[in-house]
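[audit] Reproducing an earlier prediction to check determinism. Same input, same settings, fresh worker. If the tokens differ from the archived copy the diff job will pick it up downstream; this log only records the rerun itself.
[audit] input (71 residues):
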Amino acid sequence: MTEEVMKMISLEVVRERLLDHVHQEIPYDIEHRLVDWKELRDGSIRIEQHFVTNKLGQRKILIGKNGSKIG
């Protein structure tokens, strides 16, 4: 499997998990970007992805009260 295919799969898996986790209406117009992909010395992969939306209400759904849904 190529690295590009693995990156695309990671985007889909994270988006799917987000939709499962949020339990609220998340519009399909949210932009989802792969920002960084780094293979670490121990063989693991660090993946940074961003979800971008222009609507404050959607941001609140994604982040949660006081950041409770992130980190």
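[audit] rerun output stored. Observation attached for the diff report: The first strand starts at residue 31 and ends at 39.
[audit] end
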